[in-house]
Amino acid sequence: MAHEKNISKAVIKRLPRYYRFLGELLNQGVTRISSRLLSEKMGITASQIRQDLNCFGGFGQQGYGYNVNVLYEEIASILGLDRQVDAILIGAGNLGRAVANHMEFEQRGFRLIGIFDENPALIGQTIKGVLVRSTDKIEPFCRVYHPTAAILCIPKTVTKEISDRLIDAGVKGFWNFSHYDLALNQKERGIVVENVHMSDSLMTLSYELKTLLSEEN
């Protein structure tokens, strides 16, 4: 198996798609599939699928294809979905509440153990069974429960201050929904960051629509 630290970000970003499509195949009762058929379903070339999976050892058999359940479980293991990382969410406003309520953390390798906000009106409420605490309580909470990851649903203006506090408190990974790009060189400090920009995705759609409509005219 290739050393996973040397695998490109592009390959890693395709793994959740493989996992999602394989899950759908399992729900349909499909037990095995060729790279060609998987290619047709996913819109990725068969050679790309084989190349991606060979980064982790292959998993396919000549003339048989892939055992859907085995491949599904292998990708879950590669993604770390077979373990539970304790996470906290900072920001219990509309976005934070939506993320807490609708993201299936346990099926994605995480367990939400704490929620924090600075709004007195929200402190003391529960969201999906998790108590909302004051942001003043972040450090004492981390000393007791040692969360590994943090989800940031907070304003851009406070993101650096909050993230620095969390790093000092031992948090290693950030799923960042704020409009502040946490430095991507954090790996030098043993920190990993996934910046999420929904507005970027919407603007990409705008570009694609502009291109499509200009071709039609």
Q: Features of this protein?
A:
globular, 8 helices, 217 residues, Rossmann fold, 2 domains, 17% strand, Arc Repressor Mutant, subunit A, 45% helix, single chain, alpha/beta, two-stranded antiparallel sheet, seven-stranded mixed sheet
Describe this structure in words.
The protein has about 220 residues and is an alpha/beta fold. The chain has eight helices and nine strands. The protein has helices at about 10-25, 35-40, 45-55, 70-80, 95-100, 140-145, 155-170, 200-215; strands at about 30-35, 65, 85-90, 110-115, 125, 130-135, 150, 175, 190-195. The strands form two sheets. A seven-stranded mixed β-sheet has the order 5-6-4-3-7-8-9. A hairpin with a 2-residue loop joins β5 and β6 (about 130-135). α1 (about 10-25) packs across α4 (about 70-80) and α2 crosses α3. The longest helix has 19 residues, at about 10-25. The radius of gyration is 20 Å and the shape is globular. Modulates transcription in response to changes in cellular NADH/NAD(+) redox state. Homodimer. GO terms for molecular function: DNA binding; DNA-binding transcription factor activity. Keywords: Cytoplasm, DNA-binding, NAD, Repressor, Transcription, Transcription regulation.
